[in-house]
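Sample intake sheet
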Amino acid sequence: MELHQYLQRLLPEQSPSELHISSITGDASNRRYFRLTDISNSATTVLCIDPGFRGRDPRSYPFLVVRDLLAENGIRTPEIFRHDSETGAFLLEDCGTDMLQDHVTAFPDDLGPLYDSVIDTLVHLQSIRGNSSSVPFSLSFDREKLMFEFDFFITHALENNHRATPSAQDLEHLRQQCEQITTLLLETDRFVLNHRDFHCRNILVPEGTPVIIDFQDARMGLPQYDAVSLLRDSYLKLPDQRVGELQLRHWQQLKDRGLQNTSFDTYLRLFDIMAFQRNVKALGTFFYQVDVLGNRSFAPYISSTLAYLPGYIERQKELQPAGNLILNLLDTYVS
């Protein structure tokens, strides 16, 4: 469809000629975003074209269900003004382009209070409870999901990567190790709601207030999953001291809200194991984007993500067989 056809469905009262339309660069998804600026008054909104929404029931579509859930619980998200399931389009509030990544890069002194606020928002999100038979509470980081992410990495980072030369024995051994790591992460009694992609590009900070986007894949899992996404971020490396402070803040707030009763040492152990899984999953995505889709903008994040692995391996012996094998097979990417 042409853009004007989407606009006719969502804004039938306004002529496309009255709007200035500019493309917004998205992340690793098939959704497309455009900023619409009303020429008469400079007011802006965002057009999102989501192929997955086309023909779906809005009452059960995860993007709408999760957005309403977060908004009802006081989590700041872009408002949805209109939607049209026939074309798969949304008209959203424009919360600007100031991502957490950009903001911290431009204002490094904000690394303290701003990240404290983001951790507080995360714990607020992880405190939300709901019906276990309904999305997003019916979904979880179960064995099937975690192993799917490991297998995606094995396929795109190793099997289909001409710069890696794994043997069949290497791949079988690695998959066995991934199965064992997955088992360590299946502590379902500790599961809470997770955003699932809680990194610095999915948090906008207009006027310094966190606004959460790209939340449609929310599901249940260990609270460390989202904390890892934020604190062991492929796109933005935080100082180790600040990471330690934020880990402590996250753990303490989980305890204060009755969401966890583990020691801080146990929290840190699961954090490392979860971080290993999460970073390996991210590597699979980056190789897929670069080698399959030809999107080389993700290439720089391969080495920065691999750089996290030695720390996990050193601290957690359970990760050593898989971690050392991955680093050896991808040694050409290790800086």
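Comment: The first helix runs from residue 3 to 10. The chain has two domains: 3-93, 100-333.
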